[in-house]
Design a protein that fits this description.
47% of the residues lie in helices and 11% in strands. With 210 residues, the protein is mainly alpha-helical. The protein has a three-stranded mixed sheet with strand order 2-1-3, with no helix packed on it. A hairpin with a 3-residue loop joins strand 1 and strand 2. Helix 1 packs antiparallel against helix 4 and helix 2 packs across helix 3.
C-alpha cells in the first residue's frame, strides 16, 4: 500500500499522518500493534493481489469498530505500507461519520469494542509464518495495545481507570481470545493457558491501589 496524509475539514480541521510500516512480516505487525490506530493507509493505493489475499474488510461484533484498521493488518501480511508525506487525501468530518457514535458509547461497550479490536489485530498478526519467539512478542504487543495510552488515547480513559477496571480489561481480553475458535493461542505460543496468563499478567502494568 502507498498512502498519503489525511487533511480533515468540516467540523474539524487537522492533518492525520502515520509512519510507514516496513520490515519483515512480524516486524510489520509489531509496528501496527504498537503505533497505528488511525486507518490512514486504508485510504491508500493498494496492489490488487494484496486486496485479494487480505480478504476484504472483516466485520466484528461491536458495530465493526475499527474494522478499517484491522484491514491494514491484513494488507500488511502481504507487503509494506509506505507513506507519502503529503496531504493529498481530504476527509470531511460531519455528524454522520461512522466513527462519531463510538466516543459516546457507555464505557462498558467501549471496553468491549477495544478488546475485540485488539483480538482482531492479534489474529491477523498471527497468520504469517513466524517463529515461536516472534509469536510470543506479537502476543505481548497485542496486550500492550490493549493497555496503551498511545493507541487507545481519546477512546478509552485508561489514565483514569481504577486498578480493578484495568485488570478487568485484561481478563476480558483473555476470555475473548480463549473462546475464539479461529485462533489457537496455546498452540501458536507453545504454552498452556495458565502459563500464558501468568507471564502476561507480569508484563501487563496495573496502577497500584491508592
Amino acid at each position: 500500500v502507498v498512502y498519503c496524509d489525511i487533511e480533515a475539514f468540516g467540523l474539524r480541521s487537522f492533518r492525520i499522518s502515520q509512519p510507514s510500516v516496513t520490515g519483515g512480516a512480524s516486524a510489520r505487525q509489531l509496528s501496527l500493534l504498537y503505533a497505528h490506530h488511525s486507518a490512514v493507509a486504508f485510504r491508500g493505493l493498494t496492489r490488487i493481489e494484496a486486496l485479494r489475499e487480505s480478504g476484504g474488510i472483516r466485520p466484528n461484533e461491536v458495530d465493526d469498530f475499527s474494522a478499517d484498521t484491522t484491514w491494514m493488518a491484513a494488507a500488511a501480511r502481504w507487503g509494506e505500507l509506505h507513506r507519502v508525506p503529503s496531504g493529498l487525501y481530504r476527509k470531511r468530518y460531519h455528524v454522520g461519520n461512522t466513527h462519531v457514535p463510538w466516543a459516546s458509547w457507555p464505557l462498558e461497550k467501549r471496553a468491549k469494542a477495544w478488546t475485540v479490536h485488539c483480538a482482531d489485530m492479534l489474529e491477523q498478526a498471527m497468520l504469517p509464518k513466524a517463529t515461536e519467539q516472534e509469536r510470543r512478542l506479537l502476543w505481548l504487543a497485542a496486550v500492550g495495545r490493549l493497555a496503551s495510552l498511545k493507541t487507545a488515547s481519546g477512546y478509552l480513559p485508561l489514565a483514569t481507570m481504577a486498578a480493578g477496571e484495568r485488570a478487568a480489561l485484561l481478563e476480558g481480553f483473555f476470555e475473548h481470545v480463549r473462546t475464539r475458535r479461529s485462533m489457537d493461542v496455546p498452540g501458536l505460543l507453545q504454552a498452556g493457558w495458565e502459563e500464558i496468563r501468568r507471564w502476561t499478567r507480569g508484563f501487563y502494568w496495573v496502577p497500584p491501589r491508592p
